[in-house]
């Protein structure tokens, strides 16, 4: 077995075709963040992106996309932006992990959204976490029956607010797969305001992330595409989402809404409309991402799973990295596992956001209660 490290742009057509072949042959890899198109885009935008090409007897058995940061610290491709990572390989591939880290020139590698059960990493998994999904494999009606069974009261409330929104603000219209860049900018603006309002770091303050979304929005093949959706009341955009899809799975990425319409729970209204149109478009599931929000517990109709863990080679850098990262990761897991702790942390961050100066916030949008905002 040989391991060759390349930049994504150095992958030839044969390697790209092999990547797609391996991904499509393995259902556990059905996630757009594992697609070669995403790796190529990240490689164009960030200098630290690499791919380990794993060969055996002159045959490519797998690819390992990753980021190599200062002092040999390794991170999953896309880092905090993505919700799935791992080897794109034949299912039975087991690589000597120390040899892989040496070849990649990394001393430590943390993962929190790894495809579980991969033979190379399974010994290093410290936990396996559920990821709620909207299962559309039997169609939208079967899905909505499950939502009704999960919480008939919540569904009834959302449907009432949906009718009220249309009655008071204008007839509702849902746009699936919008190609309009202006619509994407509206969504980004809402999301930036939400980040600041809730005390989070504004991801769109980083130009490369804006460029990444622009590139993903322009993708439109049958097996990989950016999907921009928006719900309108009359002519006004109310709530939207930008995510990535494979041929069968849409992954939630950036949902947001106009806070002016918060009383109508526009995020949930949008999510149900999005699921309906996803089913009509032939998609079989919507991956909502692990943890975080209570609404996912009754919108879901199934679960996927992702693994968390850490791998390191003995070195001072790895030891320092462990001391800095492990306690934070444990605290994050504890908080996301307990809704009351999550709500408390959310309130603290929102309070921090309100205390920022107007210049820092760059927005006059009010702080609003967002139980079903979905942002």
Polypeptide structure, described:
This is CelD/BcsL family acetyltransferase involved in cellulose biosynthesis. InterPro entries: Acyl_CoA_acyltransferase (IPR016181), BioF2-like_GNAT_dom (IPR038740). It holds the Pfam family Acetyltransf_6. By secondary structure, this protein is α+β, with helices and mostly antiparallel strands. Helix content is 41%, strand content 25%. The chain contains 12 helices and 13 strands. Strands 1, 2, 3, 4, 5, 6, 7, 8, 9, 10, 11, 12 and 13 form a 13-stranded mixed sheet that branches. Strand 11 (249-257), helix 8 and strand 12 form a beta-alpha-beta unit. Helix 4 (140-150) crosses helix 5 (152-169). The longest helix has 22 residues, at 316-337. It is globular.
């Amino acid at each position: 077995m040989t391991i060759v490290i390349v930049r994504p742009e150095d992958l030839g057509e044969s390697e790209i075709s092999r990547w797609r072949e391996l991904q499509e042959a393995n259902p556990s890899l059905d996630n757009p963040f594992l697609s070669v198109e995403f790796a190529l885009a990240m490689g164009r935008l960030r200098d630290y992106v690499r791919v380990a090409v794993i060969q055996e007897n002159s045959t490519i058995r797998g690819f390992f996309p990753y980021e190599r940061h200062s002092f040999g610290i390794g991170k999953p491709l896309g880092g905090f932006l993505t919700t799935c990572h791992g080897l794109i390989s034949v299912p039975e591939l087991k690589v000597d992990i120390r040899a892989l880290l040496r070849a990649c020139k990394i001393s430590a590698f943390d993962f929190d959204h790894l495809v579980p059960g991969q033979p190379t990493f399974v010994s290093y998994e410290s936990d396996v976490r559920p990821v709620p999904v909207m299962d559309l494999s039997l169609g939208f009606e079967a899905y909505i029956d499950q939502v009704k069974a999960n919480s008939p009261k919540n569904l009834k409330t959302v449907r009432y607010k949906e009718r009220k929104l249309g009655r008071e603000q204008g007839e509702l219209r849902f746009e699936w797969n919008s190609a309009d860049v202006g619509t994407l900018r509206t969504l980004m603006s809402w999301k930036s305001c939400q980040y600041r309002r809730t005390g989070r770091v504004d991801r769109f303050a980083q130009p490369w992330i804006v460029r990444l979304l622009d590139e993903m929005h322009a993708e439109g093949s049958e097996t990989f595409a950016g999907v921009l959706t928006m719900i309108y009341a009359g002519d006004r955009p109310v709530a939207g989402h930008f995510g990535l899809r494979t041929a069968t799975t849409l992954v939630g990425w950036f949902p947001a809404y106009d806070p002016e319409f918060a009383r109508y729970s526009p995020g949930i209204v949008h999510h149900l409309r999005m699921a309906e149109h996803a089913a009509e478009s032939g998609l079989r599931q919507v991956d909502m991402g692990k943890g975080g929000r209570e609404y996912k517990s009754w919108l879901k109709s199934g679960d996927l799973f992702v693994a968390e863990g850490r791998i390191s080679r003995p070195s001072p850098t790895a030891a320092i990295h462990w001391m800095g990262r492990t306690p934070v990761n444990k605290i994050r897991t504890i908080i996301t596992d307990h809704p009351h702790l999550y709500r408390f942390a959310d309130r603290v961050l929102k309070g921090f956001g309100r205390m920022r100066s107007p210049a820092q916030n760059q927005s006059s949008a009010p702080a609003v209660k967002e139980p079903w905002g979905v942002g």
